[in-house]
Amino acid sequence: MDYPRITTPIRPQPCGIASVKGIAWGAVATDINNDGLMDLFVANDMVASFLFANRGHGKFEEIGLQAGVGYSADGRVRSGMGTDSADYDQDGWMDIFLTDVDEEMFSLYHNNRDETFDDFSVSNGIGMKVRTMSGWGVKFLDYDNDGNMDLFIVSGHPDNKVSQLHSEIKYEENPLLFRNLGTGFKTTFQNVSDQSGPVFARQFAARGLAVGDFNNDGGADVLMILNDGAPLLLRNNVGKLNHWLGIQLKGKVANPDAVGAKVSWQAGDFKRHIYKVAGGGYLSSHDPRLVLGIGARTRIDSLEIKWPPPSNRVDRLTNLPIDRYITIVEGKGITS
User: Fold this and answer.
1) How is the chain split among helix, strand and coil, in percent rounded to 5?
2) Cα 70 to Cα 78: distance, rounded to the nearest angstrom
3) Could you tell me where the DSSP H helices lie in 184-268?
4) Model's pTM, two decimal places?
5) What is the dihedral of CA 126, 182, 289, 27, to 10 degrees?
6) Which of 17, 105, 176, 205 lies 20 to 30 A from 6 at CA?
7) Spatial contact of 192 and 200, defined as CB atoms under 8 Å apart
């Protein structure tokens, strides 16, 4: 029997990402313009960072330069390594954090709602603290479950002999924890590292940072990946002191991991939201579950999930438990 032969190969259409070349160390998928499509920020080493805006139909446009995230404030390329994205000030728009090496200044890019960003790292109390540090892993997390997104950073200089040339710069550096002091345009971060345990007084050649609740008590724990050393697991003893709800999202029409979903919750007059991103820091992957903090409040009145395209479905739930993990399936509600 003769079978028909495929004579014309099917070639994938270019999406625009391969049109520029970089030296990527970290990437995060996030929706920067609230169009429901996941964009991609890429932290590059000694090449301008990329911001690929998703224009739909499988096409991306690189807008890092015009968005204000490609170069430093003085127009220089940097050694970008770690990155994450969150709406840290609860204004409804996703912001971006970037770590790099000493003297280049980490960046907290605040979203201007028009596909441009301003660097708020100095005004938010972070920039000068990290000026001589070389950051790698970084993650927005609510470590104390008060409903505000805090920031954890691990660092260490790439050159193990750097202190021989620059006495103020160290190969091994302290991990850092910044607490978010509240929401709104003037949101600031407080360095609470000295108050957060003896590990913050130690120095490491840290590279990766993975965040997840390994003992399921509601506190976001941290795994530090060290250069030429065993990983270091930090148990969070603070998160369980406040109330919380942990959720595992499972998409049906939306992607299975529900990347791009917006989750909003309300406890009395307390309202918060979080967007589910993908990717992030160097050499690391994070717990896919979301932990929703409510502080000392003892109930969550309502929960709303806006599932990402192509679904765009909105599920609303009430009568929610607290201080435990649940699974929510798109269109079916709580299944476990």
Assistant:
1) 5, 40, 55
2) 9
3) none
4) 0.93
5) -30
6) 17
7) no
